[in-house]
Amino acid sequence: MLxxxxxxxxxxxxxxxxxxSDECARTLQLLTCLQKPQxxxxxxxxxxxxxxxxxxxxxxxxxxxxxxxxxxxxxxxRKNVDILGLTDLVxxxxxxxxxxxxxxxxxxxxxxxxxADKRRYLQYLRESFRVLRRGGLLIADDACADGDYSSECIxxxxxxxxxxxxxxxxxxxxxxxxxxxxxxxxxxxxxxxxKAPRTAAALPTVDGSVEPIR
Length: 214
Ligand SMILES: C[S@@+](CC[C@H](N)C(=O)[O-])C[C@H]1O[C@@H](n2cnc3c(N)ncnc32)[C@H](O)[C@@H]1O
What we know:
Blueprint: H1 2-10, H2 22-35, E1 39-43, H3 49-57, E2 63-68, H4 71-83, E3 90-94, H5 97-102, E4 109-114, H6 121-131, E5 132-141, H7 160-175, E6 179-184, E7 190-195, E8 202-204, E9 210-212
Parallel strand pairs: 1-2, 1-4, 2-3, 4-5
Antiparallel strand pairs: 5-7, 6-7, 8-9
The structure holds S-adenosylmethionine.
S-adenosylmethionine binds near residues 43, 73 and 96.
Keywords: Methyltransferase, S-adenosyl-L-methionine, Transferase
Protein name: O-methyltransferase family protein
Pfam family, one: Methyltransf_3
């Protein structure tokens, strides 16, 4: 059923497939099951494939907000979520991901999955770090930076800006003592980080350096 939905959503040939791999989707579902988030956020919905897997891993009472900039894709995601009977669990918001994150109160979110504009990964990191509660889970797709990003952004035709931003993201999470991170090699790589449950010592900055928490 899920495969049929995905195939139908891509069939018109206007969209290059950019959803996570099947293996990655299962890993996301598994991580969601383990984290048991009440409040989860996904940045970059596309046609809803990863959103559906995250939603399937949610505990009772848990909700996912899926943020997608493209109104047509947001509508396709809504439709696909509805076909699978997950409408009560997923809200699809048509909005810029960074702008959305900036509107969220600090330490109010249990899980963030980053998969929107690759060039903005460091900004997403900083805002996600702020909105995550201690013990919150942060997952970033494409951590191996080995995908073809040429179809994702007209302003970055060879994907070099995307690759460089992902690299800076990886360096930044590795240097941030208040994040415990590890790379899972599903698909193009999932960088998985937990915000330290105890006193945070430092937070990431947009240039990849680390500054102490005041
Ligand atoms: C790689 S796809 C997401 C795939 C999806 N997570 C999945 O696995 O099924 C990236 C998506 O991010 C969306 N996007 C790009 N820039 C964005 C932005 N600034 N804010 C929100 N969404 C954005 C694109 O329209 C695209 O649908």
